[in-house]
Write a structure and sequence with these properties.
The chain is α/β, with parallel strands linked by helices and 289 residues long. It has eleven helices and eight strands. The protein has helices spanning 3-32, 34-40, 42-52, 69-78, 91-104, 141-151, 170-181, 202-211, 231-241, 243-251, 254-267; strands at 59-62, 83-88, 109-113, 126-132, 152-163, 217-228, 272-273, 276-288. The longest helix is centred in the N-terminal third of the chain and has 30 residues, at 3-32.
């Protein structure tokens, strides 16, 4: 093992643990807001499932499943004779998906704790893979994409989505930029490994897919919207849903959180409507085989 690799591994392990801790903590909020998540992500979910085109009897793997909604949409199409393998890294989130499946009457799914960077499945064992808004959060997305290619059968497809850039996603970036703007954290590197916007550049995503062994890649940007009744509704959503940012907010003092809240309210005023708030988002969707 060379020196560079040896020095890299602890850093990746530490980042992996932070990711796991953050999303384990988010599981209760995601479960409470499961219907809202399903609704605002619907256009992206529908794009992914339509382009994956699951067929009856196939085996479909979902990585970073969260509440499981994307995989469940595919589960209906593969029917009882098909199999959905719904996976995530945080055990609490896997349990959320399992409860959601019971709620929706999904009977052809199994649930596993899986690290997408080291998938515990045989090569050529699944017909399709879904991964909505998770690859960009992984410490080593290149490894995760290579593993995805490994477990796909010949002719199989991967349908994925990652977040676009911070300017196109003010619902996510406004709070983080407010925290940094107040000097509570160093300036944010939006391309940092494991960050929400780390794969926002379509060329970067295309290159990673190519290096993972995918030779037919289609990328399409898609706008979506998060709507809230008022600022308090949005602020509550951030605290329950926004992963690392939500964890960072919890670590601040009462006065620091109040200052961030005020700065964020100022930053999001352009998105106020007569009915509340309408914050846009941009998803970068890809189909690869």
């Amino acid at each position: 093992m060379d020196t560079e690799t040896a020095s890299e591994e602890p850093r990746l392990d530490q980042l992996q643990q932070r990711v796991l801790d953050a999303w384990e903590a988010m599981a209760p909020g995601w479960e409470r807001r499961r219907e809202y998540l399903r609704e605002f992500s619907r256009p992206v979910t529908e794009w992914m499932v339509a382009h994956l085109d699951p067929q009856p009897g196939q085996t479909i793997l979902e990585l970073g499943a969260g509440t499981g909604e994307t995989g469940f949409a595919a589960a209906r199409l593969i029917r009882a004779q098909g199999r959905l393998i719904s996976t995530d890294l945080p055990p609490a989130m896997v349990q959320v998906a399992k409860r959601r499946a019971r709620e929706l009457g999904i009977g052809n799914a199994e649930f596993r704790v899986v690290d997408a960077q080291r998938i515990d499945l045989e090569a050529d064992s699944v017909d399709g893979i879904l991964c909505r808004w998770a690859y960009m959060l992984m410490p080593d997305p290149a490894a995760a994409l290579s593993e995805s290619r490994r477990v796909l059968r010949p002719g199989g497809r991967l349908a994925l989505a990652v977040m676009g850039g911070p300017v196109q996603n003010p619902w996510a970036s406004s709070v983080a930029m407010s925290i940094a703007g107040l000097g509570l954290v160093p300036p944010i590197d939006t391309k940092a490994r494991g960050g929400l916007f780390s794969l926002a550049d379509p060329d970067t995503l295309r290159d990673l897919l190519g290096r993972a062994g995918f030779d037919d890649v289609r990328i399409e940007e898609m706008e979506f919207h998060l709507r809230f009744t008022d600022f308090e509704d949005y602020w509550s959503f951030v605290g329950e849903f926004a992963g690392a940012v939500a964890i960072l907010l919890r670590s601040l003092s009462h006065d620091e959180r109040a200052a961030v809240k005020e700065a964020t309210e100022q930053a999001t005023r352009p998105f106020r409507t007569h009915g509340g708030y309408d914050l846009p988002g941009l998803s970068v969707n890809a189909l690869a085989s």
